[in-house]
Amino acid sequence: MTAASAGKAANDLNPFWMPFTANRAFKAQPRLFASARDMHYFTPDGRAVLDGTAGLWCVNAGHARRPIVEAIQRQAEILDYAPTFQLGHPLAFELASRLGMLLPGDLNHVFFAGSGSEAVDTALKIALAYQSARGFENRTRLIGRQKGYHGVGFGGISVGGLENNKRGFPTLPNVDHLSHTLNLDEAAFTRGQPVWGLHLADELEALIETHGAETIAGVIVEPMSGSAGVIVPPVGYLERLREITARHGILLIFDEVITGFGRLGALTAAEALGVTPDLMTCAKGLTNGAVPMGAVGVSSAVYQAVVERAAGPGIEFFHGYTYSGHPLAAAAGLATLDVYESEGLFQRATELTPYWQDAVHSLRGLRHVIDIRDLGLVAGIELEPRPGAPGARATEVFHQAFDEGLLIRVTADVIALSPPLIISREQIDELIGRLSGIIEKTP
């Protein structure tokens, strides 16, 4: 590499095609992180930025936690990579066993992937394989939900309900969608789960009547929709979906990529809300965001049908990834679970929830604020869109927040907050107080 090319590689922002980013606008005015520790990021010039979003919903135990860092370092020296196609290594089995014991119900088998998107596509394929293994070859229809986000694979965008993610791309056939449950006329400024909206689960019965249960393989929903702007499930809604799917032999899949690992005060939203699915995807908080990893928790019935009862010898499920059960990711996952347990972070989230709820709802009455939604240590603050410029107001709040030392996330005109579970009450006050001032001065 020449000196000229080395300088270009070090300083030119253009080669990196950034994900979900207005690349031209960002590169004209970049906002960069250089390091992180506990509750803060630090910019290249050393300015602290309070993390109000756990990175991207993932750094639940805080940044650069020593036990996780050291576990990754040790593992890199022992076994940097090992394939898991017809081979294995101990940590992948150890992490799967530990997750199998922790996940609710009989979700005691785990298929590893490299991300949440991969976990979702894996879960959809498992659902199809399960129905086929039971002799129901016609059960190929998948049902998602409007405003649902299930990653960016072709399966995920097909069952997902965010139209911008689908625009310009072909999607899977035989997919239908339930209505989303967000209604500001009926349930604005609800604390926790809204009472309104249970009846929307009955749309599943209507879809079953339309298509026939004998054609439907599975239903996938986020227990709480995160990327669409924090949409909280109505009281009884998930329970109704569970009852309908079980009665008709349809698999229920929970996408817990965001809600998993303490966000709602328990290991999973399924545990926190008392509803156990047949399949569950997770990622993000699984490794505290330190090494990419996704996983699918699989019920015993599904595993037995696809694997244990497979006809003849050989591969039972033709699916997998080069990085399924990666050694460094497995080490990070085990260390992350240790931190969650030793520090009681899930219980901490539960104890902080009332204080958090009061703090975020204190923003009610600010100009532009038209709704506030919360569940566990998550909140969505919806701003009134500017006429003819949807999303512009929240984007300005996002940029101003960063410039004033605060990291938030915005989707359209919704501000999403999901801080690391180590946040203190004083930092909650700082987060909400500073955000309040920024919203107030945003035109």
What's the gist of this structure?
By secondary structure, this protein is α/β, with parallel strands linked by helices. The chain has helices at residues 3-11, 23-28, 54-57, 66-78, 90-102, 116-133, 154-159, 163-166, 184-187, 203-211, 237-247, 269-273, 300-308, 327-342, 345-361, 392-403, 425-441, and strands at 35-37, 40-42, 48-51, 109-113, 141-145, 175-178, 216-221, 251-255, 279-282, 294-298, 369-374, 379-383, 406-407, 409-411, 414-417.
The mean pLDDT is 96
Radius of gyration, CA atoms, in whole angstroms: 22 Å
CATH fold category name of the largest domain: Aspartate Aminotransferase, domain 2
Going by CATH, the homologous superfamily of the largest domain would be: Type I PLP-dependent aspartate aminotransferase-like (Major domain)
Number of strands: 15
Count of individual helical segments: 17
Low-confidence stretches: 3-7
Helix content: 25-40%
**β-sheet strand percentage:** 5-15%
Helix/strand/pairing category: alpha/beta
**Overall domain count:** 2
First and last CA, distance: 49 Å
Spatial arrangement of strands, main beta sheet: 4-10-9-8-7-5-6
Coarse shape: globular
Oligomer: single chain
Main sheet, how many strands, which sense, barrel? 7 strands, mixed
The CATH C-level class name of the largest domain: Alpha Beta
CATH architectural designation of the largest domain: 3-Layer(aba) Sandwich
EC number: 2.6.1.18
InterPro entries: Aminotrans_3 (IPR005814), Aminotrans_3_PPA_site (IPR049704), PyrdxlP-dep_Trfase (IPR015424), PyrdxlP-dep_Trfase_major (IPR015421), PyrdxlP-dep_Trfase_small (IPR015422)
Enzyme class: transferase
Protein name: Omega-amino acid--pyruvate aminotransferase
